[in-house]
Amino acid sequence: MAQAATLPQPPSLTPDYAELTRFLLKPFLDHPDLLRVDCEVSAAKARVWIRVAFHEDDRGRAFGRGGRNVQAIRKVLDGIAQAANQTIRFEVYGGQPQENERSMPQRRSSKPYRDKS
Questions:
Q1: pLDDT exceeding 70 applies to what percent of the chain?
Q2: What is the rounded distance in angstroms from the CA atom of residue 106 to the CA atom of residue 34?
Q3: φ and ψ at 91, to 5 degrees?
Q4: Long-range Cβ contacts of 22-31 (<8 Å, 24+ apart)
Q5: Can you give the pTM of this predicted structure?
Q6: What is the pLDDT of residues 32-49, one digit of tens each?
Q7: Please, are residues 35 and 77 in contact by the beta-carbon 8 Å criterion?
Q8: Other Cβ atoms closer than 10 A to 41
């Protein structure tokens, strides 16, 4: 009688979040050599914290218009973490761009005045 073949189970791999973050962020930076990535994984390997820091001159391009670049990187990392049954927290040292670095104009707080005559 033939024995049932068992397929080998793929090893449980934890993604290299630090290297992936560098790969995703470097194209936006003028000073990629100053990029710093810190990655911590919880003891249960269920939660991952990624913190990045880069040169101040790169903040505008790294964040992108309205923070879109950082949000896109965050979504890619979140998708990979979900595939690995993990949750992720992605932080940029220094937070959001300063007021004078915004690349989008401020929105009006009210509608413009229109003469009804």
A1: 71
A2: 31
A3: -125, 145
A4: 24/73, 24/76, 24/77, 25/52, 25/54, 25/62, 25/73, 28/58, 28/61, 28/62, 28/64, 28/69, 29/54, 29/55, 29/58, 29/61, 29/62, 30/55, 30/57, 30/58, 30/61, 31/55, 31/57, 31/58
A5: 0.68
A6: 999 999 999 888 888 999
A7: no
A8: 14
Summarize pLDDT for 56-70 with one digit per residue, the tens: 999 999 999 999 999
**Domains (range + CATH), the chain:** 17-97 (3.30.300.20)
pLDDT tens-digit series, residues 59-102: 999 999 999 999 999 999 999 999 999 999 999 987 655 444 44
- 31, 58 contact by CB (below 8 A): yes
